[in-house]
Amino acid sequence: MHTERPDASEGKERHEFLGQLAHDVRNLLGPIDQGLHILAMTGGDGPLAAETREVMSRQVRALLRLFDELVRASDGPAGWSELTARLRPPVSRTDTRRTDPASAEKPAAAPGSRRVLVVDDSETVSEMLVVLLERWGHQVRVVPDGPGVLGAVQAFRPHLVLCDLELPGMDGYEVARQVRGQEGLSQPRLVALTAHAREEDRRRCREAGFDQHMAKPVEAEPLKALIASIPA
User: Helix, strand, or coil here: 157?
Assistant: First the structure.
């Protein structure tokens, strides 16, 4: 398998690109797995299942587009197929991200609902969680990067913050430290969401100020039980 990287230097830039590529692939596959959990929970019926299938369909199309851009197949020697991966520099998603889901029409808050802040730079991961949480009757806001969290916590005053650890601008560990360091701020329950589930990751989460660690993809029933344990 050959790799081409037009107009790119070696060393640090290549390392950063490969890290971003791995992050993109995890962001594409994680929500599909998350959606399968939701479909299993609902039995594949009802409005939540229908919305989940639509989100998963968009994610699969995005995954196919990614591989169409990156991988080219051609005939190789002795009847073998040859795959060429074209490693492109990372592209900013600032213009395509739904940065303010709160501006969309929201259902009325149900009795006993909680305010939940979702912090994730993957639009599809956020959308999947918004669909699930709103179906449970909770009020949800989304922040796509680390630097925007503190202002959102001050304005929205969430009961719960679900925070990815790999964020642009500021990682989840620093987000937790800043939230915990704010005097006079109503402190939410902080839960780290990450694909990493090693004990070292859990230790770092505790030290940064997270109350809990949940591995991606998040399973619906444990998340529902967690929210129910938080006083409204």
Answer: coil
Q: pLDDT for 115-162, tens place per residue?
A: 999 999 888 788 878 888 988 899 999 999 999 999 999 999 999 999
Beta-carbon contacts of residue 159 (< 8 Å; ≥ 6 apart) = 114, 115, 116, 188, 189, 227, 230, 231, 232
Burial zone of 78 (CB within 10 Å; 0-12 exposed, 13-18 middle, 19+ buried): exposed
Distance CA(159)–CA(118), nearest Å, equals 11
Q: Can you identify the CATH homologous superfamily of domain 101-228?
A: Response regulator (3.40.50.2300)
Predicted TM-score of the model (pTM) = 0.61
- One-letter amino acid at 80 equals W
CB 119 within 8 A of CB 149: yes
65 vs 98, residue with greater confidence: 65
Q: Give the residue among 155, 161, 124, 165 at the shortest CA–CA distance from 34.
A: 124
